Amino acid sequence: MPWKKARRHGGENAMGVHVNDYLNGAEADLLRRGQTLFGKIPLKLPAEFNLLTQKCRDELTRELDALQTIKSLPLPSRLRKFKRIVAQVDFLEVNGFAALNRANEDDKQLNVLVQRIVQEINYPLLPPAVTLLSQGYFYIWPLLGLLGVPLGESDSLLHLPDLYHELAHPLVDQRYEPRVQPFRRGLLQSLRMIENYTAHELDREDRSRGPKSFRYYLGTWMKAWTEGWLIEFYCDLFAIYTLGPAFAWAHIHLCAKRGVNPFEVSGIMATTHPADDARMTVMLHGLRYSGFVDEANLISHRWKEYIDLAGYKPEPEFQRCYSPDILLKLAQVSYEAVEAMGCRIATPRTDDLVHNILNGAWARFWQNPKSYPMWEVDQVVQLHEQLSRR
């Protein structure tokens, strides 16, 4: 501890004095740190980083302004506020400012790719900046407009379909942007449908003579649907509808490499993402709904091969947790939502540069998996050359 408990002298709480002195120094140090971060932003960055630069500046300024207002608070409240500001400055530093400070040519190429994607699909928002700082898999921070990609994926094609999934997340967070309201209304309609289904299942439990503990599972599932599952399904479907089969192939690829039980059903603790088999079912519905019937049948066959090889089996409650009727309706409602936003829906007749390359990569992979890596090296070079000319 930077201070120790002391005895009272003259009625004054020496502990409070020490805490106050500590916070004065710690807040001054945090202010200096924040000012230093502004200086870490390079003066000459590609235009793709302009939005991220402004958001980082605005968010850090807001936190440092808040830091100036907490000095008059009672010490317990002041300490809590200080901790919150530190956490937010940490977040800005390791994500936004780090992405700006180390932006390089690989980042620029991936930003150009995302710029092209949003043009092809008529994305209704400004595109996020892309950084190759991800230490795990693809992610997005809508607050900053920052999309993270693992370093090695900049020279690969098979996982790039996940860019489309991440682009869907900001559509959920923009509460007042009129161009995304169809997407948000679709989510709300689907949520009401799930709430009605859960209420019906709870009523069944009340009328049954079985163990009442199942009511708890229904509550856990409803919480998971509300806090994450529904959004993830919608982001998957946005990727299916704007890109096509390549996203479903990428899902199999990810599950084979890093996936867990695709039939997992939440019990005590709700999972952040829905079970992979349910996600695949929704993707297949979406592909068929947008005209990729043959591709959906082939992907379904490959998915079953993977499931059988890995030895996975559905848990007894799986279809009750992920009602087949609900999964089908999600695909239908979300299709209408994406279309109503004015986004370009991918069909077997779509002929756009990135769409063709990412779907073509998976077609080429299945033609000759062993020789695919050498083909991909040349294809990535050609992609960047074509993007640089446009």
Short précis:
The protein has 390 residues and is mainly alpha-helical.
Structure write-up:
By secondary structure, the chain is mainly alpha-helical. The N terminus is likely disordered. The longest helix is centred in the middle third of the chain and has 29 residues. The chain is globular and about 65 Å long. The chain has two domains: 89 residues, no CATH class; 230 residues, no CATH class.
Per DSSP, the total helix count is: 14
Separation, N- and C-terminal Cα atoms: 58 Å
- Residue runs with pLDDT of under 50 for 5 or more positions: 1-12
Main beta sheet:
3 strands, mixed
Mean pLDDT: 92
Question: Which outline best applies?
Answer: globular
Strand order of the largest sheet: 1-3-2
Q: Radius of gyration over alpha carbons? A: 25 Å
* Approximate helicity band: 55-70%
Q: Based on helices, strands and strand pairing, what is the structural class?
A: mainly alpha
Beta fraction? under 5%
Q: State the order of secondary-structure elements, H for helix, E for strand.
A: HHHHEEEHHHHHHHHHH
SSE blueprint and pairings:
Blueprint: H1 14-39, H2 50-69, H3 75-101, H4 105-121, E1 129-134, E2 139-141, E3 146-150, H5 162-173, H6 181-207, H7 214-242, H8 245-258, H9 276-289, H10 293-310, H11 318-321, H12 324-340, H13 353-367, H14 372-388
Parallel strand pairs: 1-3
Antiparallel strand pairs: 2-3
Helix pairs in contact: 1-2, 1-3, 2-3, 5-7, 6-7, 6-12, 7-9, 7-12, 8-9, 8-10, 8-13, 9-10, 9-12, 13-14
